[in-house]
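To close the chapter, one final illustration. This time we ask the reader to focus less on the individual chains and more on the assembly as a whole: which components sit near each other, and how the overall shape emerges from the parts.
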Amino acid sequence: MAIIYTSTTATSGSTSWCPSNSTTTTGGYDTWNTWIEEGTTSCPSTNSTWTTWVTTTDSTTAANTVMRPVVFRATDYEENQRRLEENRRRAAEAEEARAAAEAKAQALLREHLTDKQRKALDKHGWFLVEGGKSKKTYQISGRTYAGNIIELDGRRQIAKYCVHASGAVPLADHLLAQLLHLKYDEEHLLAKANRTILAA
Amino acid sequence: MGMMEVLDPTGHTRHIWDASNEAEVSAARALYQSLTGSGYRAFHVKKNGDEGVRMDEFDPDAEKMILTPQLRGG
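The assembled structure is written out below.
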C-alpha cells in the first residue's frame, strides 16, 4: 500500500507535497513517494524536497539506492581509450607476426616440394606424396590442419588420416612435417594418425 | 657448413655450424639431442624434394636437417 502525494499551493504562493486521502493499490512505497517523503515527516516544500534528495547521505534512501547518479570522470574515459588502443596495437602485432611466420614456413615448404607438387598446390590446394615404405599415394590438402591426408587408389579415396604436428606451428610447417614423415617415416605417421575408412 | 631448421611458431629457426669448429658442433649436437629428446623427429634432406632420410643420430656433416615437432593423432 503506497501513499499518494499531491501538490498543494498555499495562499502565500509556496507549493507543498502532502499525502492525499487516497492510496495506491500496489504494495510498498514507490520511488516517487519515497523521494518526496525523504528527510521530513511534514509536508515538504518542493525546494526542500529537492535539496534533501540531492544532499542526503543515507544509503537506504531512494535517491542513493535507486537513482544514484553515475559520476563521469574524464580520466576513466581516457584510461579506457588507452587500454583499447593498447589492445588494438597488440592484436595488430600478433597478426603481423603470424603472417610473417606463415610466409617463412611457406617458403621452406615450397623449397622441399617437387615442381609437380608446387604446381598442384598452387592449382588445386593439395599435392601428392608417395609413401616411402608402402609406395601408396597420399593427397595432402594445404588448406587445413585436421584430417587433411587422404590415401588414394587411383582416383578412389580409401582412407582419411588425421595427424598433426604438436605445438603452434604455421600451417605450412605442419604440411612439411606430414610430407617428411610420409616420405621417410611413414610407419610412424600411420601409427600416430587417426584413420577413417572412406571406401572398402 | 651444417644447417638445422627447427620448425616452431615463428615458421622455423635456422641453426648453422662450422663442421670443423668443435665448439659449434658441440652446441649443435646438444640442441639436436635436447629437441629429439623432447619428441622432435629429425630428417636429413636436400632441396627440391630430393631424397632424404630420417635421422637417429646427429650428423655434423649433414648438409641440411629439418626437425619437426612430434606428431599427434587428431
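Chain B has a mean pLDDT of 92. The domain at 2-68 of chain B is CATH 3.10.20 (Ubiquitin-like (UB roll)). With these observations in hand, you are ready for the problems at the end of the chapter.
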